[in-house]
Amino acid sequence: MSEFIQQIINGLSVGAMYALIAIGYTLVYGVLRFINFAHSDVFMVGSFVGFYSGKVLGGTSWAGGLGVMAASMVGCALLGILIERLAYKPLRSRSKLTVLITAIGVSMLLQNVGQLVFGTNPQPFPDTLPATTFQVGGVVVSSKDLVVLGFTLCLLGALEYIVLKTKVGTAMRAVAFNPQAASLMGINIDWIISFTFGLGSALAAAGGFLWAYKFPRIEPFMGVAPGLTAFVAAVLGGIGNITGAALGGLLLGVIETLVKGSRWSTWTEAIAFVLLILILLFKPAGLLGRVQAEKV
Amino acid sequence: MKHPGARRWFLVAAVLSLGLGWAQDRLDPYFVDILTRIGINVILAVSLNLINGHTGQFSLGHAGFMGVGAYTAAALTLFAGPKLLPAGAGFWVEQLWFLVALGAAGLVAALAGLLVGAPSLRLKGDYLAIVTLGFGQIIAVIFRNIESLGGALGLNGIPARTNLFWSFAAAALTVYVVTALVNSTYGRGFLATHDDEVAAEAMGMNTTRYKIVAFVTGAFFAGIAGGLSGHFTLTINPKGFDFNKSIEIVVMVIVGGMGRTVGVIIAAVLLTLLPEGLRMLSSASPSLKWIGETRPLLYAILLIALMMLRPQGLFTWKRKKGAVTA
Amino acid sequence: MSPILEFDKVTIRFGGLTAVSAVSLAVGPTELAGLIGPNGAGKTTVFNLTTGVYQPTEGRISFAGEPSAGLRPYELTRGGIARTFQNIRLFKSLSVVDNVRAAMQVHRTQGIWNSLWRGGAFLRDEQVVEKQALELLSIFRLDVVRDEMATSLSYGDQRRLEIVRALATKPKLLLLDEPAAGMNPTEKLELARLIREIRDRFQIAVLLVEHDMQLVMDLCERIHVLDHGTKIAEGTPVEVRRNPKVIEAYLGEEHALPE
After folding, report:
1. What ipTM does the predicted assembly reach?
2. pLDDT by residue (tens digit) across A105-144?
3. N or C: which end of chain B has fewer CB within 10 A?
4. Residue C251 phi/psi, 5° resolution?
5. Which CATH number fits domain C1-80+171-259: 3.50.50.60, 3.40.50.720, 1.20.1560.10, 3.40.50.300?
6. Apex A282 CA angle, A278 and A284, nearest 5
7. Of chain B residues 189-208, which have a CB less than 8 A from chain C?
8. Quick check: A296 and C14 CB within 8 A?
């Protein structure tokens, strides 16, 4: 039983990081209706920015760790905005397929440039945040898991505030709902799209930093697997739906961790996709999404 | 290809591949090696083009079907063959059995295509891309978990059966079938589905059916290419059919021009030669060594640049009046 | 005669929005019918319901006496409903003649093996289809551009080609979604003549959504008026023109004529 609880906590913290990535997919899908393939590599860059800034700052402290995470988030927000401006914006009037292929290209570019810069071998991630383990009634809890969960909750709270309470959040929702109408209302669509990319990338970077904190070995292709799972989480929750993405992430994190701890562990990597196909078969709009009729 | 001459061209290609098969031992092995790979890549690219290009359903899992074919064919020649065939069976029996293995490779891959395609082809572009990508992952996980197929290490010691004849004959068959399909009622269905699904349905076309036909046919030939590839490299493992391999094929289709068979064939040839060229360059002098390691980076830049500057592909030209797609 | 198309209290809701509410209407087998109403009245939604793009939330739709619930668009097209689109949706990678051939193959598809073998039967069938396609095109004087790509035609020709393509499916009911949009007065006159000719020659029913009142009043034998998703009037052009509800819907209440 205590092992089960441990697994659940572990799963929730992995799921929290999936949620952080999934929200980026969902936000971008909301405003641009396309899957940003390069998102998972922004996540990877997030942990590498953390790696370098952690080395520069040195030491292990709460303030230092927060600083490193902030650096990752800012760095990746800029990267996300840059990617959108350079690669996607010029193609906005082109077919979706063109943008999709470009996104795949950007993803490969980030991975391979990453490989040139960082090398192929996994590198240990510096301990930027303090960590201990303690026991609660026979359950061994790593403070890392609690930190991941706590940070994620804070970030989700901040996101909720931005999306629901601020002017720019309202504008984002307007653009997602109807870009033409939003533009007629005087909303600067380009700016909102940039902001959305920045926001999504910053969350992915936070996810990347936390991921490296929990699993301290990082390499240029580390984004691929969590990125795909997070994407499935976004679809599971109903793509375009932020709460759905967060729930989907947590759910997938728990499921994956439980499977990993069972004798079916070698099948872990396949779960997300089996799940994806099942969702698409039986509830294509996801758990919280609504079916949208195509305009004819 | 309204013209009935199409079958004649196919015959010419078949005779040519017989000739090449015969000439194999008299040619430079390096040259034979490259030609064989060109044949296999043409099969992969032309069959993916049917799905991604003509029918407009973006698949990122073509290598997965290739893997299914590779494992099926290898299992047949490596395990089933020695049990079923009389000991010391001659050359022709071996070749015939290889033909059976290739056919099975295609059929099993086609079946996999049906299983993946039927639920997911109702989805629009991006989703299909992800599902097919996921399929590639699942296939790799499955092979890794089947101990009798070598698990993560894969299969070794596959008999060397693929030669220029098989490679080219299969390529010719692929090109013929794809071209014939595209220039038939099916072809207009594929293209209409590609252009506008809503309008196609409104014109009485069952677009799901067209998508599945394209997908299953594409998977069939990818399976054959996998069978050929396994009996050419003599060793296969789950990693060889991952996302990177799928992307390699996608790049061929995009460089050649989606929906343009001739362009895609040219691209398949050139992109098979490109790594060879890079390898020669990088071994020419130590200062150029880095070039050999930049292939994926090059592909990435190629993809982005093409989408920005020439999304229709490099080897496309205005369609001739009256001709459907070449 | 029993109607070819019948709506019986049809309602469709998208989430909380009721786009069409309890609409009943009937179109006779060779009737020239019009569907009018202000923007957002639900006209195109009626088309999408008729062609199976949407399924009604409540009510019944019958085509040729049979309920059409649950049928997909292509199945309804095979049964005899053809349509054009508000925003032209031709197949852009097909030539003019192939656009028509693609629609013709509804009633004749070669099997895979025939397509691969390309034997005599296949080639003969292809020739028959091509000949029929050209005949149809020549009625609309589009045969001269048969090998052009569909999208290279002029706007008016593209609109006509869309009608030809719809006719190629051999419909019993032809739905035209704003066929006169973007046309000048001369082209509109020509279009009206063409639509009448289609009805007379092929003996089919035509239902059109159109904003140009003049065209609708001149052409249609029966007009159905929608406003805010409900049907507010039905009748001959003269009746509809005099109907106070219609005048109100079009002019806004402050300009309504005293009853």
Report:
1. 0.88
2. 999 999 999 988 888 889 898 888 888 888 877 788 888 8
3. C
4. -100, -15
5. 3.40.50.300
6. 90
7. 189, 191-192, 194-196, 198-207
8. no
